[in-house]
Amino acid sequence: MIYILITIIFFVAELLYFRIAKQYNIIDKPNERSSHTQITLRGGGIIFWIAAVIYTIVNPSNDSFWFLAGITLVSVVSFADDIVGMSRKIRVLSHFIAITCIFLLSNVFTTIPWWSIPIAYFACIGVINMYNFMDGINGITGLYTLSVLLPLMYINYYLHHFIENDFLVYPFLASLVFLFFNFRKKAKCFAGDVGSVSISIWILTLLLVLIVKTNNLVWMGFLVVYGVDSVYTILHRVYLKQNITEAHRMHFYQILANERKVPHRLVSLIYFFTQLSCSALIIVLYPIIGWWIFVTILILLIAIYSLKFKLMNSPK
Hints:
- Helix 12 (264-289) runs antiparallel to helix 13 (292-305).
- The protein has helices at residues 2-23, 46-58, 62-83, 88-106, 108-111, 117-133, 140-159, 166-182, 192-214, 224-239, 252-259, 264-289, 292-305, 307-313; strands at residues 27-28, 40-41.
- It has a two-stranded antiparallel sheet with strand order 1-2.
- It is mainly α.
- It contains 14 helices and 2 strands.
- Helices cover 72% and strands 1% of the residues.
- The longest helix is centred in the last third of the chain and has 26 residues, at 264-289.
- 42% of the residues are buried.
């Protein structure tokens, strides 16, 4: 019953935000880099921050306050960036502080060797930016988030209870509500930086807690699809001598949606099922063959991603 009430609250909060966004003209105007063609409300992903606030109110603890502090900081900075734009230095600093908060929550500082802490910061900032870069078509952020949360929920319920159940359920419900408005041919809203960055902090928190409690990095594979697309695209742009900090349309999902005209929602579903399948293979086969399953998945995804170059160069 409580989850039904929480879902209703999320719906009401999202609808109230739409009224505010319309009043203050918080919109996303398409440009030559966009994958959409119509003006749409921006910042609907604020629902993930709202979910974090409600979670903390319902489940108050030192850990939840560390989490709320981190996700609130990046949400405020990202929302301001959505509206008026913020300098890259401020955005990176907010990410760094937020990551410090979730490191404290997940006991990273007291668990991993000191020399690996800078690597952990670099990797987490990479994940935040990866989530942000991959947010470009209807449904992809919400569905991909579900593809990460579902296997984490399975692990928490059936294999290794690593975190309080509500910490998984709240972002799950928020994703469903967001998808109700976003997973459409004509989306009611986009996540905006506030959405993609805040949910990336939530996902990072979950993965870090699981990694620390199981002392196993294999769970990074729950982000392997986004990871391959992002890293391979960066390498491709470096090869082409492009500025990797500038907006572009060279991710695999962008080639499929923009160049090959595959329906956006179908592309999002492909990413969802691909990541869900990869995560299922890791859960089932890692106990049997160890890290070889991760290596095998990585090789297969790289091979699939390489098809992008053929799609880019072949006639439409």
